Amino acid sequence: MSRVVFVLLPAVHLLDLAGPAQVFSTAVAFGQPYDLDYVAEEPQIRSAQGLPLTARTTWPDLGPDDLVVVPGWSAPTLRGGPLISPRTAGRLRAHHAAGGTVASVCAGADALGQAGLLDGRRCTTHHQLQDELAARHPRATVVRDVLFSTDDRIVTSAGIASGIDLALHLLAARHGPALAARVAREMVIYTRRNGNEPQASAMLRHRSHVDDCVHRVQDLIDTHYAEPLPLTRLAAHAGVSARTLTRQFSRATDGLTPLRYQQTLRLERAEHLISQGATVESAARQVGFEDARMVRRLRSRPS
Prior knowledge:
single chain; alpha/beta; six-stranded mixed sheet; elongated
């Protein structure tokens, strides 16, 4: 069981909190063992939208696999926002030092900065707060015009709804992009918006359509992309003819065939394995190619 601890500060934005919480609670419905918890410096705080929220004031015991998230709050400037206590700052630093991940949404990045976790690291926040974040934490590198940024287990996201993109990225990193795609589809978020490189996954980039037949086929390919998937099997899974599936798939995914989609998934996974130290040959075989020649061929093919 992994914990996701949300640190609630005064005037917290409900969507900053509810978006990531919904992602992880949906993952629980798909069998992932997450326990969501909420901590604050007072037993009750008032959200920016006026809804009072209750939380525990004592932190649970945390391990390296647990995640701490600081949602943003409503304030015209970061300087006018809440100051975290030395105790909260210490808990954030200690969790990261122990190997855990600390994330923020929107203005929550300032809380990470107050804890010293942005020093020497890339980060981002809401576009209206980026200049101030850079001024308040000059040892940080503020990345502009992205939805989220990751650096040494410090994950920061832009404003409001981008917390959902951040949470989907964390799910993909922990459990693979197929689970992130399933959660996104359950939440009726068929695409993850563009930002840093992990957001470019084809599993979500080609989900911005409403063709349920194609979504069912994509679900199958996402889960079994390393296996041979004949068009006849995919068509039978969708309950349509092979010709109909090819036509619908191409229309929904801007010209991709099911095979091209599967190859794209394989190549992206191979590139990830190579970046982690695998040889091209080893990565190719792990993702279902017979040898490295196909990886090299697909790498050289225009996108």
